[in-house]
Amino acid sequence: MNARPEGITHPSIDDLLTKTDSKFSLVSYAAKRARQINAYYSQLGEGLLEYIGPLVETHAQEKPLSISLREIDAGLLTSERTFPESPIASGGTDNGLAAASVEVEQD
Question: What are the residues whose beta carbons fall under 8 Å from the beta carbon of 37, sequence distance 6 or more?
C-alpha cells in the first residue's frame, strides 16, 4: 500500500498550480479531462474507443478527477490558453452591437 494518499491531498494544489496559470484554469482543465476519462469508461462496453483512457496507473474505485489531477501533475497533459475570435470577425452575429468607425477630417 502507498505510504502517501492519492487523490485530493496528493498531488498538492501548490504543485498543480505550477502547471497552469490560475486556479480557475486548473479546475476547468481537470474537470474536462475527468469527463473524458468517465466517457472512456462508459464506452468500453460498446467498443467505440472514441476517448483516450487514463494515462497513469489507476486503482480500483479511483475517481476520474483524481486520475486527471495525477495526469496533470505527472506532466502528461498540458493546457493551452486559446482565445476565441470575435463573433463579428468570424461571420457570426453581433448580438445587436454595431461596429463603429470614426473618421477624422484634417484641415
Answer: 51, 53, 54, 64, 67, 68
